[in-house]
Automatic annotation (TrEMBL):
Autophagy-specific protein that functions in response to autophagy-inducing signals as a scaffold to recruit other ATG proteins to organize preautophagosomal structure (PAS) formation. Modulates the timing and magnitude of the autophagy response, such as the size of the sequestering vesicles. Plays particularly a role in pexophagy and nucleophagy. It comes from Lentithecium fluviatile CBS 122367. This is Autophagy-related protein 17. Pfam families: ATG17_like. Residues 390-424 form a coiled coil.
Length: 494
């Protein structure tokens, strides 16, 4: 019965060792003391009962450990997959929003550029006066801007502003949904980080199997140690039964008749020789010296088993706490998953609103601004070309008038020359020619007149003359600088 020495020892064992050291024969009193001490050592059986309870309890915890470890690992894998899926959904919503925002800002920039260009063109129209000679007398000064309908510009501007307001409202709804989504994900990540993670060793996923193995080893060793105590007790009983008066002395000392551990009633011992008896006593004395150490070993193993059970129980507590926290995470995931449908619906609604309303409206607005700017630029250019055309018409009119005057003078000269020639012919030959030889002999020469052809209108003859005069006066005389500025604008925009 080898075991570490213990500071505690009984009086009987001390006396036995002292007696042995003095090499004196073992007395009946010493034998009874050994018997009493061995019987007392059997009280350590309660430690074995507790050890058995510990092993059974540890076995149940070992099974629970396997279940909880597998369950927690599975739930963590599920949680990781679900979190990845939720993050992917959030990232997808973010990508949709970012793409729309980038295109929206680009279209707004193009819209502002188009509108600024239109306003610049309108500013030119506001600053371009109508030449006074083109307006009826007494008319107040007008500009090109006064001849356009600005209602279209105003209505389009209001329509685009309403479209942008609708987009901003849809975007605010999306941002509110995204903020709620982000808050839910942040709470989820925080809760996952706070889930207690059961400590494990580097070599094994759980220390419990190893602890349980150690428990079984301690229980086995304690049982074997206790069996040695039982054997020592049986030796003491046998020695008493083979010693005269031993049974009575033991009964007087303990109140119980010494009976071997395996027998219900004491049986008469088989006779042995004195030599065999001395050998028995020698073994008894040797075992008695080790008995206290064996009891100490059983107690230490019982304490170690209680400590190992506390470690197992602590590890299971961690697993249970982890299981409870992971169950809460699963409930959070279920709630977030239900809310995700609304977040996705909001994102889809925002994207559909963009494709069906905002984007086509902005593109149409940009095109309309460009068309209006081009139209009003053409209007300004047309006015510049009108001034050039008026100047050209005036030049052509003046040239035609001069040609007409020159032709009239030539016709008048030819008419006068014809009159003089006819008069001279009449003076020379008139007395010799009868008048009826040619009825046109005495006719005056035909006179031709160069005049402007009147416009064809539904007016009477008197009205035609008046209108003719007005038509001639309708080609104003523009200043040279006015025409030059107009030519410069025309050339610049060609």
């Amino acid at each position: 019965m080898a075991s570490p020495p213990s500071p505690a020892s009984s009086t009987s064992s001390t006396s036995s060792r002292r007696s042995l050291d003095q090499n004196r024969p073992l007395s009946l009193e010493d034998l009874v003391n050994h018997f009493v001490a061995s019987k007392r050592s059997l009280n350590s059986q309660t430690i074995l009962w507790r050890a058995n309870e510990i092993v059974n309890q540890a076995r149940e915890l070992l099974e629970e450990n396997a279940i909880l470890s597998a369950k927690n690992t599975s739930i963590r894998n599920i949680v990781d997959e679900q979190v990845d899926a939720l993050v992917a959904v959030r990232r997808g919503i973010e990508v949709v929003e970012a793409d729309v925002q980038v295109e929206f800002k680009g279209l707004l920039h193009d819209l502002d550029t188009s509108y600024t260009g239109l306003q610049s063109t309108l500013a030119v129209l506001r600053d371009t006066p109508i030449e006074a000679v083109l307006q009826p007398p007494g008319t107040s000064q007008k500009h090109l801007f006064d001849f356009i309908d600005n209602t279209t510009v105003t209505n389009l501007k209001d329509s685009l502003r309403d479209c942008i307001d609708r987009y901003n409202e849809a975007h605010v709804s999306l941002e509110d949904s995204n903020d709620a989504f982000d808050t839910a994900l942040e709470n989820l990540h925080s809760s996952i980080e706070n889930v207690p993670r059961t400590p494990v060793t580097a070599s094994t996923p759980s220390p419990i199997p190893s602890l349980y193995h150690d428990l079984e080893g301690h229980a086995k060793e304690a049982a074997q140690a206790f069996q040695s105590l039982v054997s020592h007790y049986d030796f003491c009983v046998s020695a008493l039964l083979h010693t005269e008066g031993g049974a009575a002395a033991a009964t007087q000392a303990t109140g119980d008749e010494p009976v071997p551990s395996g027998d219900a009633h004491a049986a008469p011992p088989e006779p042995i020789s004195e030599e065999e008896r001395q050998e028995m006593l020698a073994v008894l004395v040797k075992d008695a010296a080790e008995m206290e150490d064996v009891v100490t070993e059983i107690r230490e193993r019982g304490s170690e088993m209680s400590f190992l059970l506390s470690q197992i129980d602590s590890h299971i507590t961690h697993l249970r706490n982890e299981d409870s926290a992971l169950s809460s995470i699963l409930r959070m995931l279920a709630q977030i998953a239900a809310e995700v449908k609304d977040h996705i619906g909001t994102s889809r609604s925002f994207h559909a609103h963009w494709l069906e309303d905002t984007r086509p409206t902005l593109l149409s607005g940009i095109e309309e601004w460009e068309n209006q700017r081009e139209f009003y630029e053409r209007f300004d250019l047309a006015y510049a070309e009108l001034l050039v055309e008026i100047s050209a018409r005036r030049r052509r009119h003046d040239k035609a008038k001069r040609k007409a005057e020159e032709a009239q003078k030539e016709l008048d000269r030819l008419h006068a020359e014809d009159e003089r020639a006819r008069e001279q012919f009449t003076l020379t030959q008139g007395d010799f020619l009868p008048l009826d030889i040619w009825p046109g002999l005495k006719d005056p020469p035909r006179q031709y007149e160069v005049r402007a052809v009147p416009w064809i209108h539904d007016e009477d003859e008197e009205g035609q003359e008046e209108h003719l005069e007005t038509a001639v006066q309708s080609i104003p005389q523009l200043g040279r600088n006015v025409v030059e500025r107009a030519l410069t604008r025309v050339k610049r925009r060609m």
